[in-house]
């Protein structure tokens, strides 16, 4: 049995069929509706969209995205309108569990990409990689094809870091449409990738858009991931900060204490309301 078969075996065989999937429940975390899912349920939803041609985008949501959304109403709207806003970080999972959703599990962007890549190699889903620095999308495609020989790569594109002109934007949309992908992987980091997915969804024919940020680097092998124990403990931010202090220190100096304090207040408020409701 191949590794891809093992992965497929972990997903319900009905996931790719035309059967209806129940609406995904959500949990409100500091104003952002996070999907109350685990990896299997997230993959099930994405496969259904591909089977039915339903257009959707997926926000891979961590503490950074939630805090950014508190200060950016449009970004919050984009998260809340997503087909899925999966819990990417352990702090999000911790809060969802404490807010009455004990079955929520981490849907880590790189792991979601690995799972769907293995499934796509078997089912023939066409992949498009959009984002990253010069040459990164091509390197990612080569790396994943080497690991999964049946993987169909419809195209790759690393856009410039500056704002695109209207003609450049139209050319990119036309190129992606012509490639006819089933999944467009977007590696632009938050909030740029969320804005891009929301803006382009209705301009593209049928694909699922999934914003995975640094997963491009991790899966291409250009950056190292945190050890598993740090990931499980919710300390991946600390590993990334130590790896890229000049780029990330300002982000985490704001995100970590803000999320921790506001998250604690929300959990305490939830517990107090629960106690009051029981008393009544």
Can you list the strand order of the major beta sheet? 4-3-8-7-5-6
Compute the average pLDDT: 90
Total of DSSP H or I helical runs spanning 4+ residues: 13
Shape: globular
Number of strands: 8
Organism: Rhodopseudomonas palustris (strain BisA53)
Protein name: Glycosyl transferase, WecB/TagA/CpsF family
GO molecular function: hexosyltransferase activity
Keywords: Glycosyltransferase, Transferase
Describe this structure as you would to a colleague.
It comes from Rhodopseudomonas palustris (strain BisA53). InterPro entries: WecG_TagA_CpsF. Pfam families: Glyco_tran_WecG. Keywords: Glycosyltransferase, Transferase. The structure is a single chain. This protein is of the alpha/beta class and 280 residues long. It has one domain (15-213): Rossmann fold, CATH 3.40.50. It is built from 13 helices and 8 strands. The strands form 2 sheets. Strands 4-3-8-7-5-6 form a 6-stranded parallel β-sheet, with helices on both faces. α7 links the parallel β5 and β6. α1 packs across α6 (109-123). The protein is globular. The protein starts with a helix and ends with a helix. Mean pLDDT is 90; it is low at 1-21.
Provide key terms for this protein.
single chain; 280 residues; alpha/beta; Rossmann fold; six-stranded parallel sheet; 13 helices; disordered N terminus; WecG_TagA_CpsF
């Amino acid at each position: 049995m191949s590794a891809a078969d093992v992965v497929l075996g972990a997903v319900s065989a009905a996931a790719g069929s035309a059967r209806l999937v129940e609406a995904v429940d959500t949990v409100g975390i500091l104003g952002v509706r996070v999907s109350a899912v685990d990896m299997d349920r997230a993959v099930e939803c994405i496969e259904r969209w591909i089977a039915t041609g339903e257009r959707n985008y997926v926000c891979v949501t961590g503490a950074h995205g939630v805090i950014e959304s508190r200060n950016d109403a449009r970004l919050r709207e984009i998260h809340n309108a997503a087909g899925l806003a999966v819990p990417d970080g352990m702090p999000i999972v911790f809060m969802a569990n404490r807010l009455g959703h004990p079955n929520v599990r981490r849907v880590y962007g790189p792991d979601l990409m690995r799972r769907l890549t293995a499934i796509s190699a078997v089912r023939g889903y066409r992949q498009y990689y959009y984002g990253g620095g010069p040459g990164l999308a091509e390197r990612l495609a080569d790396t994943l094809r080497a690991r999964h020989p049946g993987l169909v790569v419809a195209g790759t594109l690393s856009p410039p870091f500056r704002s695109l002109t209207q003609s450049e934007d139209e050319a990119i949309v036309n190129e992606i449409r012509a490639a006819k992908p089933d999944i467009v992987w977007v590696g632009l980091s938050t909030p740029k990738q969320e804005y891009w997915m929301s803006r382009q969804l209705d301009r593209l024919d049928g694909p699922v858009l999934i914003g995975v940020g640094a997963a491009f680097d991790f899966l291409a092998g250009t950056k190292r991931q945190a050890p598993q124990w740090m990931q499980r403990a919710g300390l991946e931010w600390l590993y990334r900060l130590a790896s890229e202090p000049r780029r990330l220190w300002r982000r985490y100096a704001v995100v970590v204490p803000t999320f921790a304090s506001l998250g604690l207040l929300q959990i305490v408020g939830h517990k107090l309301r629960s106690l009051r409701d029981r008393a009544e």
